[in-house]
Amino acid sequence: MKVPRFLVLVLALALLVCLGRAAQAQEPDPSGAVPAHVGPGCTPNANQHCGDTSIDSSLEVHPFSGFVPMAIYRAQNRDDCFRLIWNANDAASFGMAFDYMASGCSGDFATGDEASRKRLIQSNAAGDELYLMQDGGNVGIGTTNPGEKLTVAGVIRSTDGGIRFPDGTVQTTSATGVWSDNCLAIQAGIDALPPTGGQVIVHAGTYTCTVPIVIDRDNVDLRGQGPATVLRLADSANSPVLVLGQTTTLPFVTRSNIRVSDLFIDGNRESQTLECWGGPCDTGGLTAIRNNGITLRRVSDVLIERVTVSRARSGGLVSEKGSRRLTVRDFTSFDNHFDGLAAYETEDSTFSLR
Predict the structure, then answer these.
(1) Range with the lowest mean pLDDT among 59-73, 106-120, 163-177, 324-338?
(2) pLDDT for 65-82, tens place per residue?
């Protein structure tokens, strides 16, 4: 039987292709690099997989005991590598780590040379959606040497919610800290707040007031550290200690959204000679204002909490001149010359004493 010439050519070409592929498969890489692989049991087909015959992805890598899922070696001696591993020690955590291993490439999150390990966990038992960690527990953003649980080299922006402190309070506006021994520093901190307002934190200590602290603006939070933060009126100052609102004889602007908390106010009444600010009462100017521990004048939406007032020459806390929506809670007043707490021309307010 005579074989057609074209069929002979087709068979010859097919044989050449097969031989070429076999030779190529056996020929070593001229660069000397180790051929890429993903571990034992890898079966190439339309989809690549390793460790499992059930394939539903273009590439699947299933770990074997003693192997990490993926490693990229810098040199043939396999002494160091970058690797992609999983958290095998915490069944409730799922994620991955990018490591540089200087002494081999094995183990999981808890083993091996972890000096330079960086971790990215997408979800864990605590509900973290994104969790970055460096060994030692510190996280750095913009820095490779974080010294605290979170160190940020740059500007931190909060668009909603603010920042919660260990004592449970939440700060939603800018804050100024005061370390001093006089009330002028506290007044300077209030005056330096931006137009939108903010918080002034007064640290523990005794602050001497030669003139009163005046909050004549909106959106101010004045916060001490409890009884250890003492505002004490200086000898012969003959003034209130703290005034919220305008100091004009008849206030014409309502100041609002003011908070005062965690302070001890000492009116030092034994060293004062006058009941009113700067002279006999109601003789003009500031003499319309009594020398109370706290005076509120035409203010609204004010919160005063965890404050103690003692030894004021007039009253402890007095509101007047059309004040509204005041909340005074956990307030203590004792050893003041007149009222411990008084509310004149005041509406829609709540008061609770300790």
Answers:
(1) 106-120
(2) 545 555 555 555 555 555
DSSP assigned state of 160:
S
Under 8 Å between Cβ of 309 and 333? yes
Residues contacting 15, CB < 8 A, separation 6+? none
What percent of the chain is modeled with pLDDT above 90?
48
Tell whether 289 is covered by a domain.
yes
Q: Is the pLDDT of residue 92 over 60?
A: no
In the chain, the number of structural domains is 2
Q: Which whole-number Å values give the CA distances from 3 to 8, 11, 15, in the listed order? A: 7, 11, 17
Is 39 within a domain?
A: no
Residues 82 and 227 in one domain: no
Burial of 111 (0-12, 13-18, 19+ CB in 10 A): exposed
Residue type, 44: P
311, two tokens: 């030894």
